Amino acid sequence: MEKDAHVIITNTLKVNLTVNKVWSDTEIKHSSIYAGLYKADGTALRSYVELSENNKYSDVFRNVSSSDLVYELRPVTVNENAEFTINNKGYVKVEANNIIVAKANNTDTKYKVSYGEKAVSEDGTMITQTITNTKIVTELNLIKVEKNNEKNLLKNAEFALYTANDDYTYEESNLVTDKIKTGSDGRATVNELVPGKYVLKETKAPDGYSLSANVWQVLVNDDQSVEVRLNGYKVDTEDGAFFIENIKLYSLPSTGGSGIYWYMIGGMVLMSAAAWILYKNKCREVLGK
Q1: CB of 26 within 8 A of CB of 135?
Q2: For the residues of 65-134, what is the DSSP string, one character each?
């Protein structure tokens, strides 16, 4: 007995997939990046585009499956298998929220990568996917206080911040900013710090306090957290701000003040009395002879 044969034919919709690269720091020049095409299950399809200023960081994958995805690519590290080979170099995809290093104004800069939802045209034939690179920056908050008296907040302290080597050595030419100054609340903030190592020095002490010779070590992490150390020990914080201490100068009586006059007058009186007694004694000795 004959049976009917059923053949299932599946048609996959082919689309044009546009990929756009967006940088959070739009005002500066960036290096080009590669973006690769992947199946929905993460399998690389070996098709890639280069996004740069020349194409305004936008390009199109043509006649691809509507389920395909685009990922930013990064160079492989040790023991990684390349998913793409471009100009004899291996690359793999960057997962969401991972960090990559790209050139920004010719300086290595760290960015967090995120992927937007696909935007589909009304007829379903065009899809747009946006990849955003967000520059990793954070802030350093300081509180200037009197040593052993943290309630006494000190204004008008000034600091300089320098980029440092791995061992926290630094050059004066590596100045980041010397415009750090505490306000009436004793606080100062340095904005837009990128991950890395820095050193902090005091350049001007508050009135009535000695200039600190300390060099504070500052570490800005990829997760935007900040650590400050002095002589190997973590510096105390309050609400994310680091305490920086100054020693109060010893106060002497001011020159010409009323207090010193009394000391001078008293001394002169004593000296005069002693001279008078000596004179009278000499007179008695002479008369006795």
Answers
A1: no
A2: ETT-EEEEEEE--TTPPPSEEETTEEEEEPPTT-EEEEEETTEEEEEEEEEPPPEE-TTSSEEEEEEEEE
CA 195 to centroid of chain Cα atoms: 5
Which are the contacts of 211, defined by CB distance < 8 A and separation ≥ 6? 202, 204, 205
| CA-based end-to-end distance of the chain | 169
| Least confident residue range of 23-32, 34-43, 85-94, 252-261 | 252-261
Q: Total domain count for the chain?
A: 2
Query: Could you tell me the CATH number of the domain that includes residue 48?
Result: 2.60.40.1140
Which one-letter amino acid corresponds to residue 77? T
Tokens representing 219?
């570490």
Exposed e or buried b for every residue in 152-162, given b needs 16+ CB within 10 A? Answer: ebbeebbbbbb
- Percentage of the chain with pLDDT > 90? 78
Position 276 in a domain: no
Contact 185, 153 (CB under 8 A): yes
Say which residue, 58 or 269, is predicted with more confidence: 58
Element (H, E) at 261: helix 258-288
Confidence of residue 12 (pLDDT cuts 50, 70, 90): low
User: Which of 184, 247, 181 is closest to 213 using CA atoms?
Assistant: 247
Domain that holds residue 33: 14-135
Band of the pLDDT at 279, cuts 50, 70, 90? low
